[in-house]
């Protein structure tokens, strides 16, 4: 099972072509699409198998409680988790690490302002970031800022909202 975490509407829009590409590449895979807000969940409901989207996708609401995230990880047993853009929820990442779920941050971006905020809580954010397996940044500038908090592999792959559609159409 592939777990995709897209917090709100913007991330959900980026998740949809990713889920479609992964479903085409791994037809036997099932998907869980999670959100932190109701608007993202409403948008994500269109990604489900019953509503014309990717096969097996469903929408649920995670919490930011380590205990509840841990229960969800152990119950669902995802093979991999994919977080979109900038949502480094420490509870979610710590629970995934405890459940031995490899986590990827894709379409990653980090503004100067967000980096400054993260540095206020640097020890916590660094610890959460180290729970990730890999990062795919949108740009070289994003890679440089992310590297100030995360010491693992960071690739620059562009913006999912635009580049994945362009690659699939070529």
Overview of this structure, please?
It is a single chain. With 170 residues, the protein is an alpha/beta fold. The protein has one domain (2-164): 3-Deoxy-D-manno-octulosonic-acid transferase, N-terminal domain (Rossmann fold, 3-Layer(aba) Sandwich), CATH 3.40.50.11720. Helices cover 46% and strands 16% of the residues. It contains 8 helices and 7 strands, in the order βαβαβαβαβααβαβα. The protein has helices at residues 9-25, 38-44, 66-76, 90-98, 112-120, 122-129, 140-146, 160-169; strands spanning 2-5, 31-34, 59-60, 80-84, 103-108, 134-137, 154-156. A 7-stranded parallel sheet has the order 3-2-1-4-5-6-7, sandwiched between helices. β4 (80-84), α4 and β5 form a beta-alpha-beta unit. α3 crosses α4 and α4 (90-98) packs parallel to α6 (122-129). The radius of gyration is 15 Å and the shape is globular.
In order across it, which strands form the biggest sheet? 3-2-1-4-5-6-7
Inertia-based shape: globular
Radius of gyration: 15 Å
| Secondary structure category | alpha/beta
Estimate what percentage of residues fall within beta strands.
15-25%
Taken together, the total number of domains comes to: 1
Overall mean confidence score, pLDDT: 77
Quote the distance from N terminus to C terminus.
28 Å
CATH class: Alpha Beta
Order of helices and strands: EHEHEHEHEHHEHEH
What's the CATH architecture name? Answer: 3-Layer(aba) Sandwich
Number of helices: 8
Identify low-pLDDT runs: 48-55, 166-170
* Largest sheet geometry: 7 strands, parallel
Task: Count all strands and give the number.
Answer: 7
CATH topology description = Rossmann fold
Superfamily (CATH H level) name: 3-Deoxy-D-manno-octulosonic-acid transferase, N-terminal domain
Helix content: 40-55%
């Amino acid at each position: 099972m592939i777990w995709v975490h897209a917090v709100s509407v913007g991330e959900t829009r980026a998740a949809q072509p990713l889920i479609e590409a992964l479903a085409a590449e791994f037809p036997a895979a099932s998907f869980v699409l999670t959100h932190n807000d109701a608007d993202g969940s409403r948008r994500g409901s269109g990604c489900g198998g019953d509503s014309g989207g990717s096969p097996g996708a469903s929408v649920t609401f995670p919490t930011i409680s380590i205990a509840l995230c841990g229960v969800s990880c152990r119950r669902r047993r995802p093979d991999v988790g994919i977080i979109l853009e900038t949502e480094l929820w420490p509870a979610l990442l710590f629970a995934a690490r405890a459940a031995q779920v490899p986590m990827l941050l894709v379409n990653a971006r980090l503004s100067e302002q967000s980096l400054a905020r993260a540095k206020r809580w640097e020890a916590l954010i660094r610890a959460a970031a180290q729970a990730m397996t890999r990062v795919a940044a949108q740009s070289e500038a994003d890679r440089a800022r992310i590297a100030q908090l995360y010491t693992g592999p960071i690739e620059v792959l562009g913006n999912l909202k635009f580049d994945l559609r362009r690659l699939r159409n070529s």
